[in-house]
Write a structure and sequence with these properties.
Layout: H1 18-29, H2 38-45, H3 53-76, H4 80-99, H5 106-125, E1 129-137, E2 140-148, E3 157-161, H6 168-181, E4 185-189, H7 195-200, H8 211-222, E5 232-237, H9 240-250, E6 256-260, H10 266-274, H11 302-315, H12 320-326, H13 334-337, E7 344-349, H14 354-366, E8 371-376, H15 391-411
Parallel strand pairs: 3-4, 3-5, 5-6, 6-7, 7-8
Antiparallel strand pairs: 1-2, 2-4
Length: 412
Amino acid sequence: MAGSLERGRTRVRGFADPEMDFQLMRQLGTARYGGAAVGECLALAAGIGDADPDAWVRAFGQAAARQEADAEARASRGHGISARDQYLVACNSYRAAEYYLRVDDSLHREHGLASRRAFLAAMRSGGIACEPWWFELDGLRLPAYHVRGPGSAGDRLLAIVSGFDGTLEETYIAYGAAALERGHDLLLFTGPGQMDTWRFNAASHFVPDFERIGRAVVDRALALPGLRAEGLALMGISFGGYFAVRIAAHEPRIGALIANSPIVDLHAYMTSFIGLDPAGLSDADDFGPDDLPHIPDTVMNAQTREMARNLMLRFGQASFRSTYRYLREFRVDEGALARIACPCLALVGEGEGGEPLRQSRLFVRSVAGLADEHVFTAEEGADGHCQTGNLGLSAAVAMDWLDEVRGHAATI
């Protein structure tokens, strides 16, 4: 043949760098629930160099502004469904740009607030009942959303908390929309240190005693008309798996718990990914945020420097070593796990490594109530962290389990 058949210029190529490739998969995965378009993500990725966070921020930030402007134009012409869809894509593109920015950079806050703005516009355009809520803790204003499904009786509510870099809006796209389809109302909430909290507070740090915000969330949820404790389920995503387990260990009013995945020892979990324990760094090898610009690329590339900086800032620590020492406080021991009497589901991917699988199994055998575990596989394209590559399957497993547990509970 004289030439090959070419049907388009967009190619299915990711990144050689595993972390940036994971972030691309994270964005692609949300296409299942309207958070992205596969072709658009791949087109953007083609213009981003490996492990180049600045190029990523520019590409997704520019795309988000274009998508939001398109949504506004469609809304002005009365095309509500089209506007809703484009606003949701813009919301998630702003989140992607927000991810690689320093949390103390003004652009981080700008992209975060733009993501929130586009999300609320999507809810209005789609006629979805979404009410912004606020919680107060230690002088911080903690944002949340209460979302009600059409025709809801108000007797089933799924409260979801994300983790280190997830946002309220991404949580809605990745898990909340699937829950609404199945008749659950939503309460998406955050705590100190989380991305959404940084948008409204100049500085905020993660705290191990997350049950304090959990108590306030449960109090307000159970004040809703028609909702009783058995109808209140709690789900934790990523680092939110720790938050949710910690809440459930101190809060008996949770009707069911889904941990994706259950983190009971954050220090062991984090050190397993890097293969060493920075808590043992010598004075000569330790570093703080101000030292990062002086570390050569041959030792630490730009992407890793930004991730290390955000880790220290988000945990409120002066150095990398002190950050990992602080992580030791983020634990739920077996005695606390034994206080969890509600039905529990542990979700984990086989590709996450030995430590997440070990902690999942410790959780399942330590809680007092019914406990199930589901391990997602590479064959399903769901073996990665939080099943970003197959969110539909993850939702099916989690939501079907929740429906079946509640159905079983209603007959005994």
